[in-house]
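Write out the 3D structure for:
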Amino acid sequence: MHQYKLKHLNCFSLQNKFTHYNFELNTLAIQFKLMITRNLASIEAHVWKKLEEKLPEGLYYHGMHHTRDVLESALLIAQMEGVTDKEDLFLLHVACLYHDLGFIEVYKGHEMRGCEIARAELPGFGLTEEQIKKICSMIISTRLPQSPATELEQIICDADLYYLGGTDYETVSETLFKEQHELGMIKDRDEWNKIQLEFLQKHNYFTASVKSSHNLGKSMHTKRILGLVNNNKKI
């Protein structure tokens, strides 16, 4: 009888330890979630303010709206790809915010400049060196030609060029033409169509979900522009 009571007490004590351990884990998880939420809100406010105040005029494509579109698309793709890890989603979110922030200072090489800005600013928001390294890798992976090496990098790359297979391709493409034409990067519409055709033909999406949802649309856009290029050759 004494041994039975001793075993029962030991089991009860062990159960209490596990309950306390699980409580501590849950508390840490809640604290981590709150920390991410607070940090993200602060980072968002900081980046939106910086973009609004410092982006040069004439960025009809690479304006604040593009960053918002990429962020929205990236979070949607992450959901479709089954990404649920809170820290991964947080890092993806921050990378989207910073991926074109370099445009406030430079056009060519804006990805690297955006990464440098992130490295300088993000420690102040409590991010670790390892987290910032992952964010910078995502930013750099969007540089053309895109070169993603991880799932998160694939997601941000597909989000950055999501419009290529979307129903709004013509509208969005027109803003990029206007931007680069005014900057003297594109001579005329004929040159633009040739560049866009080559770009579409060489481009590939990386995530399974975007391949499934956008490859058909991209193929249709490619055929339309091919027709424009061929018609111009006949003139």
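The two ends are 103 Å apart (CA to CA).
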